[in-house]
Amino acid sequence: MASLVEIADPADERLRDYVALRDVSLRRSLEAAQGLFIAEGEKIIRRAWQTGHLPRSLLLAPRWVPGLRDLLDTSDVPVYVVSERLAEQITGFHVHRGALGAFERRPARQMSELLDARRLVVCEDIVDHTNVGAIIRCAAGLGWDGVLLAPRAADPLYRRAIKTSMGAVFSLPWARMDDWAHGLERLRDAGFLVAAMALRHDDVGIDEFAEQLDQHPRKVALLMGTEGAGLSSHWLAQAEVVVRIPMARGIDSLNVAAAAAIACHVLGPKIS
Amino acid sequence: MASLVEIADPADERLRDYVALRDVSLRRSLEAAQGLFIAEGEKIIRRAWQTGHLPRSLLLAPRWVPGLRDLLDTSDVPVYVVSERLAEQITGFHVHRGALGAFERRPARQMSELLDARRLVVCEDIVDHTNVGAIIRCAAGLGWDGVLLAPRAADPLYRRAIKTSMGAVFSLPWARMDDWAHGLERLRDAGFLVAAMALRHDDVGIDEFAEQLDQHPRKVALLMGTEGAGLSSHWLAQAEVVVRIPMARGIDSLNVAAAAAIACHVLGPKIS
């Protein structure tokens, strides 16, 4: 049974996992160094827990203790109970959901573990955490097998990515490519049709591409680039097919997460 | 030609349109009372300007003046030039893009002006500004004719909605329903097939629904509800068709903007 520890001193060392949650660069280095991630809100904390992630501690405002009581009763994780004001002081923002959990990161999956997949989204340099989280949520919801991230793409276990994914980052397999330059060769060698979401003189409309896949089934690795610059020319040049979502005149692009949603639905497995 | 006015005093009355941009409830009442909206970043400012919105003033850090020089040269709008630190002090956040514009709101479009549309998204109580902005961006990009908002849905001209929409809120027609209880009757009377994105025992998969529409073309008003609670039972009961996006087992829903992206693509006009 978890022990409830009331803390009133914002400088208490036991709260160090939770400092300055809005300071992205500080959190990035702190979380990597400590091997932790932060789950926010009861629902996300439950999903982290239920997918077997080990909690280091929880930080709760008093009114959030009852909601998590069933989990706490089965665990000896330290639970720090603080006022909402103190929570705000430590984390640097108003914690609406009043519940935070620090969890141990598990050893990262290797790219090789995803090569049996039939449908992979591959994010090149998507650095926005909410976009990475949204893409993982869509891929999971629409029956794709996993997500590969280029070395510079945002961390799916960063708090906001977890939140946007609604915890799908805990269940959908994802891995980081360690080699941007040669990663796509590995995908081709593993039998993937490497398809890029982009515009090019020889691009094909997404519905036409879906029909081709119906007639000639292939494993697909779908490359998505940043919203601003799109895919690098190095990656685009290696794509066997360039796939376009037809757009109304005068509009240049969709948000990358919206494009991923459409692609995962149109090119994904038939789910009834 | 616009006059550049350097301001060093954060309490200067001329900066009042720009105070506390992160304080949603304050901004909501201030912007409604003053009839203004805030555009953030050079690109969005240009789009507001080019779609005929009247600027009240601009707030620029010095390094952003040259980028907007062509616009400023053709206008006598007051341009307040402040240090980035002062901009942060006034607005309450670090203005990455260094350029803000306060524009006059135009008289709101009436719902009646959208009834000739063939494809409308209808947002019930979607209160998240980024979701409303993302839905409008998708609807515009995928060739839909407009967006209707229930009385409690978020304001498309709130700064973050504008930003997420990439300025599509300036070009895509949208209007607010003034009557939540009877709004859907008006849509039916205007010949719309009222379709709800939701789950119900008699729902139909979205691709099957698209085929039905191909065979029997209809005007479509597509209802989208909040992420948490979904559509109200009052609205859901009035839907002629309930449309489902098939999901993988164990996943309960997509983000509403992702669902809108899929629906706007699958049910939208054929764009080549």
TrEMBL record, chains A, B:
Listed PANTHER family: RRNA METHYLASE, RRNA METHYLTRANSFERASE 3
Gene Ontology terms for molecular function: RNA binding; RNA methyltransferase activity
Organism: Propionibacterium cyclohexanicum
Domain tRNA/rRNA methyltransferase SpoU type residues, every copy: 120-265
Gene Ontology biological process terms in this record: methylation; RNA processing
Lineage: Bacteria, Bacillati, Actinomycetota, Actinomycetes, Propionibacteriales
Protein's UniProt name: tRNA G18 (Ribose-2'-O)-methylase SpoU
Keyword Oxidoreductase: no
InterPro entries registered for this protein in UniProt: Alpha/beta_knot_MTases, Ribosomal_eL30-like_sf, rRNA_Methyltransferase, SpoU_MeTrfase, tRNA_m1G_MTases_N
Entry keyword set: Methyltransferase, Transferase
